[in-house]
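Fold it.
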Amino acid sequence: MQSGGGGESERTGSQPTVSVVIPCYNLGAYVNEAVQSVLDQTYGDFEIILIDDGSTDPVTRNLFTSYVRPKTRILRTENQGLARTRNLGIQEAAGKYVTCLDADDLFEPAFLERTVALLDSDPSAAFASCWLTAFGDSSFLWNPTTCDFPHLLAEDTVCSAALMRREAILAAGGYDQAMPAAGYEDWDLAIGMVERGLRGAALLRVLSRGAPPERWRAGQSGWGAGTRNPAGYPNALRLIVASEAPEAGSVVVLTTDLDDLSPEYLEPLREALTAAGALDVQMWTTQMKKGRIGFRVEVVAPAGRADGIADAVFRHSTTAGLRKTSAERVTLARREWTLETAPGHTVRIKTLDAPGGAREKPEYDDVVAEARRTGRPAHTVAKELHEQAGRHARASAGKTAGRTIAPKETE
């Protein structure tokens, strides 16, 4: 681990009440907004621990070379995943309260003021959750009314940025670094605190913006009762077998036609729109008025970022106008793991949970890098990696999420 950049956050002098841990992996396009939402808080007794989790994209790597913000301490690690990175931040935290803010999420200005007041006034509460406005792929209000037992066993009703007592996190063992299904670490930690007799509270107001907990679809359920009769809670267990549900949410489609932009500048335009947060960018030739040949640019934007992405279209192209339409976007649940192709060389694999069965796909950039390393055609490498990924995913029976698998090299 390396320590970097600073501002007012070096661990000297008086200790802050709150530590805000922000893990960042390839989210440099958004992290400054997250940091600014913390600096804009109406409650000021906090530190920010910003952790670069081995980012590989140029935007994020360039950002961390010179990033300095008030009250912000920067740590750098090799890529180790969200749970380990959060746990590192908790170990480094000086505050008695800790919140883990995702690098592409935001606090409302009163988040810390309200959640700190709740924990200060109720020593029996281990964590304080709240409502949030979801943006990005989906746009809606997430507003659960309870986060206690037994509701927490059936559904994750605790936001990922809940303010927690540091001692309660440590008592529960922190975030599970061996979680087989990425995205459920928050829920597991909340259950871990509750099953130890700790309790949380939910503030029934919007204090955060970001992604809600993972969605899932129940497949089977059952229940049973034990023979003991403990005081204070029923000796019963309900088991739910569930799978991740396809995500659905509102998006905005931005469309424009260009007939006066040289084709060589289309790729920089695509890169700029992707950096601004576009979910997808498509370009194709079209015939415009007076027989001119032009290019149609279609951008799928998260509903909450459409205005900013529209500004990017105007800045990075020659267009004078855009068309906006609303649409519904449905995506399959996905997870990412790594396949070792040679000692020290890995390829990222995406697994999509489709209704007809899981599908594996190697990451394009990694396929190209592997082709250059081995001197073989990219399409041949892609085919071999796809076959290897499928074989090992099936052999592992779905237990590969977040792990590195080392097949025999086939060069």
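The longest helix spans residues 378-395.
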